[in-house]
Amino acid sequence: MAAKFKHVMLMVKDIPATVKFYSEGLGLKVKMSSPGWAELDADGTTIAMHAANEDGQAGASPILSFHVEDVYATIAKLEELGAKLEGRVREPSFGKVAAMRTPDGTILSLLQPVAAEAVSN
Question: How far is residue 87 from each of residues 1, 24, 68, measured CA to CA in Å?
């Protein structure tokens, strides 16, 4: 099964201010917003915002986020194609998460959700 594109993610310093910028400035619909995470609807494409930590690179690069069936197999395949794993694979309650940098420097977020049916959502 192909990876399913989920959203474009922006690392931002101030989520409420950034939500206001996009919602009031561009008229994007706010799907959800909290201090650490927000999602806006950009005509069917989700723009997700993740709070950057103090030393995080806010505004450095959008992050392309994909749901995958097997995060470790996907990492191996992408490494063969020149990508590099950024940090370690994390396992929060909602699944396995990895960040990779493509050969041209774009950041990819890979999520293997805890339930297989979550991939199809």
Answer: 26, 35, 18
Cα of 8 vs its chain's centroid, Å: 6
Separation of first and last alpha carbons in the chain: 14
Q: List the chain pLDDT tens, one digit each, 121 residues.
A: 788 888 998 888 889 989 998 898 878 899 999 999 999 999 899 999 988 877 666 666 788 888 999 999 999 999 998 899 999 999 999 999 999 988 768 788 999 999 754 444 5
CATH topology of domain 61-121: 2,3-Dihydroxybiphenyl 1,2-Dioxygenase; domain 1 (3.10.180)
